[in-house]
Amino acid sequence: MLFIHNEVVEDILNMEDCIAAQESAFRDLAEGKATHRPRSDIYAPCEREDGYYRWGTMEGCSGGYLAIRMKSDIMTWPRAEDGSWTEDKYCMEPGTYCGLIMLFSAMNGEPLAFINDGVLQHMRVGGGGGIGAKYLARENSSTVGMLGSGGMARTYLQAFCAVRGITKVKVYSPTKANRESYASEMSRRLNIAVEPVDNPEEAVRGVDIVSSCTDSMASTLDAEWLSKGQHVTMLGPMEISKEVLGRVDIKISQGSSGLDISSKGTEKGIGHSPMAWVAGSKDERKRLPAKQEDFNFIVDFPNFGDLLKDPTIGRTDQDQITFYHNMGNQGLQFSSVGGLVYEKALKAKVGRNVPTEWFLQDIRD
Question: 99 and 120 in contact (C-beta within 8 Å)?
């Protein structure tokens, strides 16, 4: 059994392979050859009076691998002086995080690997956004408007460059130093022009691909900023307002959630959680953010499998505004990309060996 750290994942995983692995798994899902359980979360009071503990899991099975992704976070929902509202997290102390992928063989049940989820998480989400652009953005798309300058904004741009001939990017994030650092790094890394701009409208207007990659608890762009022919995608469930969705001509989701939000004891839309089980007294629950009207994690759009079966539900002319809801197949993304990383690690003979027998027992479970 292997323990595969972030440094190894970063060294062996490239965006083109990440996109291909997911695309194959999504096709298998549409054909009934793969399956998944989307993300669900458990909330409980923590030691912070302004926060809550959150445990999240998601699972998928594809290509002979089963993966479960697990994360353990202390959650807060801070408001900045400028009025912006975000979701923040850490494990034990700010700046450290605990997220793990456990990979199993679906052939004989063998535990195969533990994988740090940091790099793989960013790559699988960015790769998902790349699949949306591959199928919905105009083929001659060359410009990107990026809202956000964090790790996800980096992998989304990598993915767009992998599927389209991107030459110019405008990036906005509230902190000037962050957007300037992003522009400098990504222009050098991808050999394209990346320009930091002073407001989100400037980033969105006139580009071919609009991408919002933030942890915002509110919408990040206005519908009136959009123009004919653009392709729009996002990271968080609250970044895209109903007004923006109303302006869009074509809406495709990555996958259906498969979640029964009417189940007893479950709640929808706590923070960025699609489905949650919550513990705590009435007073303790006041720490949680109010549910937002524009919560777009669970949608009823046609999904990627539907698009594969009937391409006419996608872009059919150059003037349509398309939208890809980059959520739904999370568990499947971890099994497909996790399996790919495991195979690459074996081939490269990297990762730390852990005795498999530590995870086996002779007592029937």
Answer: no
